[in-house]
Amino acid sequence: MMRVWILPVLLVTCGAAVTAALVLTGSPGTAVAELPVFMALAVVNSPLIFPRSIDAQEAERRSAADGQPVVYWRPGCTYCMRLRIRLGRNAHRLHWVNIWQDPAAAATVRTANNGNETVPTIVIAGRTHTNPDPAWVREQLPSHT
């Protein structure tokens, strides 16, 4: 659980150090501009930007019931962030599984990707797709009923 927060905490710590150094060297204006950049990077790389993760077994059960895709992801993955951001409000319709929190999910991803933990790996209608185009994923979503 703590592993998902390493990068965001590191970004906040670096941001604080850079800000302090800039203030001490007499550049408070630059410091005020730099800190929000580090904070924004920390938020984007944190689990906060993604819908709440569930375990693989629960995601598969829910997907079988509602037909929505399962997305296997991990924090800090730029392709996962791209997918999440480009899906926009539709992202909450998918079932998100953090492979760093669920060893069974990581095993599923490795099986689908020749032993590699390549994410995002998406399961749509029982078929796996590795790092598909977000527009294509949006097209695959069942329409609201």
UniProtKB/TrEMBL annotation:
Q: Give the protein's recorded name.
A: Membrane protein
SUPFAM superfamilies assigned = Thioredoxin-like (SSF52833)
In this chain the Glutaredoxin domain maps to: 70-127
Q: From which domain of life does this come?
A: Bacteria
Alphabetically, the GO molecular function entries are: electron transfer activity
Q: Which InterPro entries match?
A: Glutaredoxin, Grx-like_ET, Thioredoxin-like_sf
Provide the leader sequence positions. Answer: none
Classification via PANTHER family: GLUTAREDOXIN, GLUTAREDOXIN-LIKE PROTEIN NRDH
Q: Which GO terms describe its biological process?
A: cell redox homeostasis
Pfam families, A to Z: Glutaredoxin (PF00462)
